[in-house]
Amino acid sequence: MEGTQSWSVTMTCFSAHRLLILSLLLLCVTNSSSLLMPDSKELRELLSRYEQDAGKKGASDAAANRSRRAILWSDREEILLLHNKLRSSVYPSAANMEHMVWDDELERSATQWAEECRWEHGPQDLLMSIGQNLAVHWGRYRSPAFHVQAWYDEVKDYTYPYPSECNPWCPERCSGPMCTHYTQLVWATTNRVGCAVHVCPKMNVWGEIWETAVYLVCNYSPKGNWIGEAPYRHGRPCSQCPPSFGGGCRNNLCYKDSQHSETADMNEVEKPQVLLPPRTTPRPAPKAPRKSASKRPTTRPHTPRAPAAKPSSRTFLAHNIKCDTKLRDKCKGSTCNRHKCPAHCLHAKGNVWGTVSYDAQSSICRAAIHAGVIDNNGGLVDITRTEKSPFFVRSTKNGIESLSKYKPANSFIVSKVEEYTADCYTTVAEICPFKRPSSHCPRVFCPANCKTQPSYWSPVIGSNVYADNSSICKAAIHAGVIKASGGLVDVLPLERRKSYAGVLKNGIQSESKSNMEGGSFRLFAVRVGFI
Questions:
Q1: Which residue in 95, 140, 392, 397 could disulfide with 235, CB within 3.0 to 4.6 Å?
Q2: Where are the beta strands (DSSP E) in 350-480?
C-alpha cells in the first residue's frame, strides 16, 4: 500500500527556579519522532484550503470576529477534560493537585504565537510569566488530544523526587530525551490552560520546510517547571489543597465548587386548556347565481391562474401575542417560551400580579414592561416557567402597578431576547448550553457562505435535532431554516439525546453519532419583518 511519512514533534520550555530566575537562562529542550502512516489525501486537501488564510495578517477587528476560531470548541473541551483526567491519576498520588480550567487570555496569546508559524517558544516577554508546550505535525490528521497524551507519556522516563531526596533542591530525574512536557502538564499549582491550533502553509522545523503543518500551542498559568522543585506534593489526594479551595475536592483534584444544584424541569406546569364550544350560528343560505348577459365570443387567449401558494411548513419559536395575553392563555412547553409583544401595552388592559416573579394569570407583555425587559414600543420576551410561588408582592415599576396575591400559584419570570452575531463555527455548547429547568439562546445572526465550510471546523451532527457542538449556522442551512446567504435564526437548547442520525439535506451531509456528551438543540425560522 502506498504511504507517506507523518511527522510529529514536540517542544517545551524549562523554567528557572524563582530564587535563581535572574541568574539562570531559560532552558529549552526538544524532541522528535517519526511514524509511517497511510496518507490522508482528503484531509490534506481540506487543510490546504486554509493555506492562504493562515498567511494573512493585519485583518480588522470586525473581520477577526467572523474568522475561524483558533481551536474547535470540541477540541477545547477534550483538551481540558484530558488534562484534568491525567492530573488526577498521577503516580505517586498528589496531595495538592489543582483542578484546571480554560483561560481565554491564554488562548488568545497562544493564538497570536501559533499564527507566527515559528518552531520555537515565544514570545520572549511572555515566557517569564507563563509555561508553554508546543507540538507540530503534518500528513495524517491528529487531534490536539493526541499531542496532550504524548506529552503525558513522557512519564515513562520520569522518576518522581520524594521529599527525602530534596535537600533543599530536588534532583532532576529524566532518563529520556524529554520530560518537561509531562512535568508542566502535571504541575500542581498550574490551574489554567489555553491552547490554539493553526495550519501553517510553510513552517521551518529544524531546517526542514513543512507544508500545511498543523501547529499546536498550549500556554499555562501559573507557570511550572521550576528548577529544583517537584511538580507536586506526594500524599493523600486533596489533603494539602490551598485554603482558597475551601476543602473542595473532585476526582482527586482541589476544586472550588461554584456550581448550583439543578432543579426539576418545570417547563410544563400549566393545566390543560379548556376549549370553548364551537359557534352554532347558522350560515345564510347561498344566493341563486345571476344569469350572465349574452356576450360576443372573444378570441382573447385564456391565461391560466397560478396555483395557490401552499402554507409554509416552517415552524417558529416566537409567537405574536396581544397586550392582555396571559401566560396560561398560550400553549405550554419549551416551544412556547418566546413571544413578540406589540406596542402601546403600557396603558392597555391586563392585570399583573407580583414583582420579578409573576403569577401565571398575569399579562405577559405588561409584566415584561413592569420588569423593564421591554418598553412601550414592544419587543421580544423570553418566558421561564418556575415553581409555584407562595405569594406575589405588589409594586409600581416603569409606569405599571402590579397587584399582590397571598395564595400559591404557578409563576414565571421574563427576560430580554438578545441578538448574537455568530460565525460559521459558533456552537450552542459555546454560547447557550442547555441547563435545567430551561435555557434560552439569543437570536442568532448567521453570515453568508457557511455551507462551504469544511466539516472538521463546522460539523453538523444529527437532523432536525442536532448535537450542541454542531455549527449553528451550517445546521440552520441543513434544516432549511436559512439559505446559504445567511440570516436570523432562533435556537432552542434541549437535553442530551442518545443518538443522532445523519441525513443529506440542502446540499449538506450531516453526521451520525451516539453516546455523546452535552445537550442538543432545534432551529426555527424568523418571520420576515419580525425582529
A1: 95
A2: 354-355, 357-359, 379-389, 396-397, 400-401, 409-416, 419-421, 443-446, 462-463, 465-467
